[in-house]
Amino acid sequence: MLVLLDRGFDGNAFFADIAATGAMLLARAQSTRRPPVLAHLPDGSYLSNLDGLAVRIIEAELRMTGSDGSRVHEGYRLITTLLDPRRYPSHALVQLYHERWEIESAYLALRHTLLDAHLLRSGDRPGLEQEAWALLTIYQLLRMAMVTAVETRPGTDPDRASFTTALQAAKDQLTTATGVCAEEPTDLLGVIGRAGLATLLPARRPRYSARRVTCTTGRYHDRDEARPATPTTTTAITIRMHTPPRDPPPAPARPPQPPTRRQRITAIMNSDPSRSWSGRELAESLQVNLHNMLTQLSEWTRLGFLTRTSSGTHALATPP
Predict the structure, then answer these.
(1) Distance between CA atoms of 143 and 135, rounded to whole angstroms?
(2) Can you name the residues that pair with 164 across neighbouring β-strands?
(3) Architecture in CATH for domain 261-316
(4) How far apart are CA 248 and CA 268, in angstroms?
(5) In 70-118, which residue ranges form alpha helices assigned H by DSSP?
(6) Strand partners for 57
(7) pLDDT digits over 138-197, tens only?
(8) Residue 5: left if φ>0, alpha if ψ -120 to 50, beta else—which one?
(9) pLDDT at residue 180, as a whole number
């Protein structure tokens, strides 16, 4: 199963939940996302990692030309768990992502074709959940029958099968109880499949149009003036891949630095914190010049690291 997601569902935790089910995903990333570039792939995509989830990133620019001479372009940054660029080339996935809008056809079939625009009947949550699962189950079974039938004609797009025809054929089967007690080997094509093949819809033409919403407060209220006001047939589509440079390797770890003079003095004083230490014995312990040691002890005392206990002796400052 491949799940298509738009930018509204861009989230690492949600992607991980989908991957945990065993399904693959192809999602569009938000423009603010900057995934790390771990390795370049031959098709222009690159490998990345999102909080432990291995993914492949496809960055592409689409330029479309309409039959009226208009031109539109849009940038895609897609995230997918299909990591093999040879089995799943970037151009094919970019073209496939366009079909995410077909979920709208599923909503139409559920709300209007199956329910005939009626509301669910149940008045409580368990009943509503039962009805919803029943609708989803019927929808899935009909779609499976439609795809099985279309696959008998190689090269035919499953989108051309009519959901309305499949539903009516299923209703007729239930009404007449035809084939309830099968006496012959299973007919994979079946009445539903044959009805679908007999009423194939015309192939959908590639087109684009302006975004329109009926809600005046919608996020797309301001129409994109680069797009034509009416649906326009697409005459040419150009896909150009963009591969960002690979992230530099992490800087090597710095070798451990020797302790500073103040750290060494602190360690000596911590060996016997109950006593005071003179500058002379500290200078002899570190094998440094006495004058330099006395100067540093005075500075560390002024900064609050040490406490002057008497003339020429110091101790570690007690933390507040």
Answers:
(1) 12
(2) none
(3) Orthogonal Bundle (1.10)
(4) 42
(5) 90-97, 103-108
(6) 46, 79
(7) 999 999 999 999 999 999 998 899 999 999 999 988 888 766 665 666 666 788 889 999
(8) beta
(9) 62
3-state secondary structure 188-207: CCHHHHHHHHHCCCCCCCCE
Contacts 24+ apart (CB under 8 A), 292-296: 296/261, 296/262
Total residue length of the chain: 320
CB 203 within 8 A of CB 233: no
Record the tokens describing residue 41, joined without a space. 């792939």
Strands 313-316 and 46-50: unpaired
User: Position 319: which residue type?
Assistant: P
With CA atoms as reference, report the closest residue to 46 among 83, 2, 5: 83
Dist CA 276 CA 282 (whole Å): 11
The answer to whether 162 and 154 are in contact (CB under 8 A) is: no
Contact 94, 60 (CB under 8 A): yes
**Structural domain boundaries of the chain?**
2-120+128-241, 261-316
The sheet that has 306-310: what strands, in order across it? 277-278, 313-316, 306-310
User: What is the signed CA dihedral for 7, 2, 99, 218, rounded to 10 degrees?
Assistant: -30
